[in-house]
Write a structure and sequence with these properties.
The protein is α/β, with parallel strands linked by helices and 317 residues long. Helices cover 49% and strands 14% of the residues. α4 packs parallel to α6 (102-120). Bound molecules: adenine (ADE) and zinc ion.
Length: 317
């Protein structure tokens, strides 16, 4: 089934094998004896317990080539799952804070997007994501650094530790991003309350909500999301591994679709959560009894919700 993937953090596609390879190449010491040792550390209790390891893993990325290789590996793997279009988050602050230049990150990733189109026929674009555990001032500084590379990304997002960092904290920087014509998305309602989803819509003017699964606790919000066809980029295996729905049988993707929401399925951080997009689909379908109708809905929603040009969408749908 051809489909788009709209919620993938490229640093979350860094497989343990590649972490070790890049650490060796860049002379970086890892606190793990082996790939297996690292993999066995992937037992998460919540979002923060994952983020601690995710930022540590991303610390092996140094050169433009590293970023390019990482993204090419993801895009080749996604193409195997019949992903024909991907909108990819990257977290520049994770790298610029370590002394890696913004252009090293963006040029490496942008080169991978171009090459993957040639090699695999997959289209890909980049979304710059601000880290919400840092300040709005730091987000403004990041935007400033990225603007000379504006042609290489289509939008901005908001990720990292959700609880205690509501969307309202970033209202001004997102207003600036809107003036610049950037698409707006935000993680909201992953672990955080429905109020964070309202804020993402009303204060940031998010065009899509990343995760959003906590919306089910607010009837008025569910009605609004359905009426305005605001897409949710849902990530089943991520929610299971981070204990949002510890048992996949309790996942609410089917309920969101049946409630008329434009829900999509995505892999979030596939190297950490045990599966790429088709694994997510197969496992959530098996666990919750979704059927072929849901599959076609998810594929159609993924294209509808994408920021791809209308002509491409028409071709895919
Ligand atoms: N960064 C990478 N994956 C994330 C997630 N699932 N939630 C918030 N920030 C993230
Ligand atoms: Zn995410």
């Amino acid at each position: 089934m051809p489909k788009a993937e709209l919620h993938i953090h490229i640093e979350g596609s860094l497989e343990p094998q590649m972490i070790f390879e890049l650490a060796r190449r860049n002379g970086i010491a890892l606190p793990y004896a082996s790939v297996q040792d690292l993999r066995s550390a992937y037992a998460f209790t919540d979002l923060q317990s994952f983020l601690d390891l995710y930022y540590q893993g991303a610390g092996v990325l140094q050169t433009e080539e590293d970023f390019c290789e990482m993204a090419l590996a993801y895009l080749a793997r996604a193409a195997m799952d019949n992903v024909v279009h991907a909108e990819i988050f990257f977290d520049p602050q994770t790298h610029t804070e370590r002394g890696v230049a913004m252009q090293t990150v963006v040029r490496g990733l942008a080169r991978a997007c171009e090459e993957a189109q040639q090699r695999h026929g997959i289209s890909a674009s980049l979304i710059l994501s601000f880290l919400r555990h840092l300040s709005e001032r730091e987000a403004f500084a990041t935007l400033e650094q990225a603007l000379p590379l504006r042609e290489h990304f289509i939008g901005v997002g908001l990720d990292s530790s959700e609880l205690g960092h509501p969307p309202e904290k970033f209202q001004r920087v997102f207003a600036r991003c809107r003036e610049l014509g950037l698409h707006i998305v935000a993680h909201a309602g992953e672990e955080g309350p429905p109020a964070y989803i309202w804020q993402a819509l009303d204060l940031l003017r998010a065009e899509r909500i990343d995760h959003g699964v906590q919306a089910v606790h607010d009837t008025a919000l569910m009605q609004r999301l359905a009426a305005e066809r605001v897409p949710l980029t849902v990530c089943p295996l991520s929610n299971q591994k981070l204990q949002v729905f510890p048992d996949l049988r309790q996942h609410n993707l089917k309920a969101l679709l049946d409630g008329g929401l434009v829900a999509t399925a995505n892999s979030d951080d596939p190297a950490y959560f045990g599966g790429y997009l088709n694994d997510n689909l197969l496992q959530v379908f098996a666990a919750t009894g979704m059927g072929v109708q849901h599959a076609w809905q998810l594929a159609a929603h993924s294209f509808e919700a994408s920021f791809a040009p209308a002509a491409d969408k028409a071709r895919w749908m």
